[in-house]
Amino acid sequence: MANPNREGEFLLVVLRRPLSGSCKQKIVESFPSLKVKHHIIGEGECDDSVTQAVTRAVLHRVTILMTDQYLPNPDDVARLHLVHVARSGVGDLIDHPLLHRGSVTITTSSGIHGPPIAEWVAMTWLVISRKFLQQKEDQMRHRWSQESARGCFDHVNKRVGIIGYGGVGRQVARVASALGMDVCVLTASARPNPASRQHRGYCIPGTGDPDGTIPSTWHHGAGKIALHGFLSLGLHHLVISVPLTERTHALIGEEELTLLSRHAPPGPKPYITNISRGQIIDQEAMVHALESGQISGASLDVVYPEPLPSDHKLWELPNVYISPHASSYGVEYLQRTTDVLHENIVRLSHGELLINVFDRDKGY
């Protein structure tokens, strides 16, 4: 792969938000020979209009592309060898022909979302367990009453099952562990030894579970048997943190929700948190489980479809918290995705393996 210190290397940045001066400066100072062009995608702007702003003459020079939604025609970027996607995965870009050109390496921003998403997860749990909304309502009424605090509970010794143990799952585990919870995880492949449990992707320093030592039990398997065994562990919380693939589509359905509920420990029924993609849970089955009390509630940063129609039943359920696929948002986002790109450009210059490489066979 090309060396970014070599003359002629050209980075094109096409994003919906502008990079800060510090983001660009970090790359420019590290690689003074690297030419950089930055285009901000306007509201409602399509690929064709981007192409008008970023001409073919420019595209023919591009060797590295950083983008969150725009991908050029493969015929226009013959020199391109690296695409960095400023998202956790490639998402709806997966069928674009550029992603299937073998000479182009695709990297993602997986790993940067852990802190904000884990904070969102903990926030939704604590809003419920500490009856925050009820006490806020008392405040707005100028009412001093401890009645609304009755029935509050903490999370010590509660068991959380996390399906998927990438950067986000590991930070959720770190926060849950800090709350005194028992953490169990399920991954598709076996992780039988310490080396296999290490996190190989990008990790913000001081976060996550780099060595994979937080879970008390680590389960594996891509089929129903493994999943059903995991759901039978007596979970208080179930967190969905896997990418959407053909294998994970409708992973949690009526059968799985029934199993989760049946094996619940004494007390409130299990609580589901989905920070992955809405299609991973059978939404109709989940609504039924929520209405029947089979599960106690759900925190949903993702639903299907998105946006959720205004007349959808989920909006009205009192035991559901919905946010508009925004749990990863934060002012730190662009700096961190740029950090991943910077790390990989450093690795390119040293001839080292890149991190967060998109696996075309796995789809993530």
UniProtKB/TrEMBL annotation:
<keyword id="KW-0520">NAD</keyword>
<dbReference type="GO" id="GO:0051287">
    <property type="term" value="F:NAD binding"/>
</dbReference>
<dbReference type="InterPro" id="IPR036291">
    <property type="entry name" value="NAD(P)-bd_dom_sf"/>
</dbReference>
<dbReference type="Pfam" id="PF02826">
    <property type="entry name" value="2-Hacid_dh_C"/>
</dbReference>
<protein>
    <recommendedName>
        <fullName>D-isomer specific 2-hydroxyacid dehydrogenase NAD-binding domain-containing protein</fullName>
    </recommendedName>
</protein>
<keyword id="KW-0560">Oxidoreductase</keyword>
<dbReference type="GO" id="GO:0016491">
    <property type="term" value="F:oxidoreductase activity"/>
</dbReference>
<dbReference type="InterPro" id="IPR006140">
    <property type="entry name" value="D-isomer_DH_NAD-bd"/>
</dbReference>
<feature type="domain" description="D-isomer specific 2-hydroxyacid dehydrogenase NAD-binding">
    <location>
        <begin position="237"/>
        <end position="326"/>
    </location>
</feature>
<feature type="domain" description="D-isomer specific 2-hydroxyacid dehydrogenase NAD-binding">
    <location>
        <begin position="125"/>
        <end position="194"/>
    </location>
</feature>
